Amino acid sequence: MTGSRPRRSVLFLPGSNPRALAKARGLPCDAVVLDLEDAVAPADKADARRAMAEAVAAGGWGDRELVVRINALATPWGADDLAAVAEARPDAVLVPKADAASLRLLADGAGGLPFWAMIETAAAVMELPAIAAVPGLAALVVGTNDLARELGCMPGADRLPLHPLLMMTVAAARARGLAVLDGVYNALDDPDGLAGECAQGVRFGFDGKSLIHPGQIAAANAAFAPSDAAIASAEALVRDWHAANGDAVGVVRIDGRMVEALHVDQARRLLARAAILAARA
């Protein structure tokens, strides 16, 4: 979790579905993405744009981060989407099929809003450092479905063909202090598979997961939050390090392992995340 906002569970909802948007205000997700792109048919784009503006203006989102995914600027709807989002003022705007050039253009038209970038093309992967360096960018989101389709690969349950690309995205985000979110899990009736992919995302270093159904929220929240055991271990490590070393630079043997300052820093960051989530709850 980069920064002070948790992004364990990021739920995508059609911007054209007022009933779903109303229900989302009571869901325990960390962020909601009002989608004007893939989830909305071309004939419904204008209606979805109006519904999005009304949903943002109505408020009631509580601690949830509210993001709007626009259509790409190269499409017939992108410019109107961007203008509507700049006026509505959600927390951020999500850009599909991102590339560095379009993000720089968008930064001029977003009215100062932070923006997120979807990494879902081979070209985006090849220019990850340039994308991550664009001013105003707050998060990278892996679009695993589009990426696999464009690459022509078959990820399978272990997502093995995507591993290098997933880690490249995490590295690009960390190099610039950005949040980074894993892609969606498509099977809605496979809780074990979802839990496994969430656990994999945690191991890869993601802050959270993109979700396509409210039933996926609990698994993501559980996976991307520090466990009670991890919290207890971090507390003990910080306590023992201070007792043995007084925060001096060096290496200390604690419970049979060699502990450096970097391990203590990791523990303190985990405890900070836990405190944010506890305060939110």
Low-confidence stretches: none
CATH topology value of the largest domain: TIM Barrel
Spatial strand arrangement across the major sheet: 1-2-3-4-5-6-7-8
CATH superfamily of the largest domain: Phosphoenolpyruvate-binding domains
Helix amount:
40-55%
Biggest beta sheet attributes: 8 strands, parallel, barrel
The coarse overall form would be globular
C-alpha Rg, in Å?
A: 20 Å
Q: How far apart are the termini? A: 16 Å
- CATH architecture tag of the largest domain: Alpha-Beta Barrel
Q: What share of the residues does DSSP label as strand, in percent?
A: 15-25%
Q: In oligomeric terms, what are we looking at?
A: single chain
Briefly note the structural class of the backbone.
alpha/beta
Number of strands: 10
Number of helices: 12
CATH domain class name of the largest domain: Alpha Beta
Mean pLDDT: 92
How many structural domains are formed by the residues? 2
